[in-house]
Amino acid sequence: MVQTTAAVICGEKDVQLRTFELPTISPDELLVKNISNSICLSTYKAALLGTKHKRVPENIAEVPVMTGHEYAGIIVEVGENLKDKFTAGDSFVLQPAMGLPSGYSAGYSYETFGGNATYSIIPKIAIDLGCVLPYKGEYFADASLAEPMSCIIGAYHASYHTTPYIYEHQMGIKEGGSLALLACAGPMGIGAIDYAINGPVKPKIIVVTDIEQARLDRAESLIPVSTAQDKGIALHYVNTAKVDSPVEYLKSLNDGQGYDDVMVYAAVAQVLEQADELLGNDGCLNFFAGPTDKNFKVPFNFYNVHYESTHIVGTSGGSTGDMIESLDLSSDYLINPSFMITHVGGLQAAPHTILNQLEIPGGKKLIYPHIDLPLTAIDDFMSLADQDPFFAELDAILKANNYVWNVDAEKALLEFYDVSLAV
């Protein structure tokens, strides 16, 4: 048997570290060593609601569930019936969207299936659904971030447009169209900007809004206006808190017209009302942010639904194809999911990080389950140099890369903590 330590949900607002023996895997299961897991806001929602969350079982007080669904690692042991499909020692990335009627999935619903753990077991149902993808890269953070990027990519694919009296949806954002990304300078928003500019379908104009100037400044430093210009895209970063009439101003950037595609990255009523007002003819409003309030309602202009063909969609998660697209784009250096990462820590940091995501500034928090490190902002590693000179070396690696987490930083960190990638 293998011992694991995991961050588990035991009840509402109750996430704890638990060490226990994993059972022997069945012939149809995989035992895996988790190398990296990025923490998702959805995990906070599950921890906040406990058994009230649709993906969390009723018996978590007796059988806590492992958290974490954005993870990658190494296969340690292969069940007898799977030896023609998997090999011990191979790297993998999990595609957690199983689409089960129960809603159950990794990181919410299972005692031994989750990413915030040193070791975990991938069950038969996930394997049968093709959720274990081979990973050929050497940068595990990129693999973990393929899941949140797949959610972003899935939203872009789910948006749609129409032609009058032709009853077929034209899927995806409009090529050469106008795109407004509202409340979009957070971690997922940065991924959305990156994909809008470097993905396969390119708008002619993109406006990115937020009300926090520091977030907008960071987004612009990572994805400059000049980068978009090189691809024939007019990119604008707008702090709507500093604009008297945000809707009017944003339309002025688009020659006074409404937008073909509007995506909303915060579950805020005012932002959704802005999005509605920004829609042009056949405009698609994509509500990306997931609210915690099951009765969250916002007025919508149904006159425009009838006469202007405006419409709304929402997505949760991404498909296997979306994940593969993310992995391909990042391996070809067309997108950089690591733009989203602002903090790194070991497993001991996971419970507090999960429960306090809204209070901890910055973007994505990346957990390496086999290292011993408090949650640390990438910008703050130099402050740890007094404890060990290694952190000055790590800071130098990051400084050379505009303080963006990267493969060299990950390798250095794993080597410092003696994390073996061998079985």
How does this model look, in words?
By secondary structure, the chain is an alpha/beta fold. It folds into two domains: 2-148 and 319-417, Medium-chain alcohol dehydrogenases, catalytic domain (Quinone Oxidoreductase, Chain A, domain 1), CATH 3.90.180.10; 165-308, NAD(P)-binding Rossmann-like Domain (Rossmann fold, 3-Layer(aba) Sandwich). It is built from 13 helices and 19 strands. The strands form four sheets. Strands 3, 5, 6, 7, 8, 17, 18 and 19 form an eight-stranded mixed sheet that branches. It has a six-stranded parallel sheet with strand order 13-12-11-14-15-16, with helices on both faces. Strands 2-1-4 form a three-stranded antiparallel sheet. Strand 15, helix 9 (302-307) and strand 16 (311-314) form a beta-alpha-beta unit. The radius of gyration is 22 Å and the shape is globular. The two termini are 15 Å apart. GO terms for molecular function: oxidoreductase activity. Residues 27-123 form the Alcohol dehydrogenase-like N-terminal domain. This is L-sorbose 1-phosphate reductase.
Short note summarizing the structure:
The chain is an alpha/beta fold and 423 residues long. 29% of the residues lie in helices and 25% in strands. It has 2 domains: 2-148 and 319-417, Quinone Oxidoreductase, Chain A, domain 1, CATH 3.90.180.10; 165-308, NAD(P)-binding Rossmann-like Domain (Rossmann fold, 3-Layer(aba) Sandwich), CATH 3.40.50.
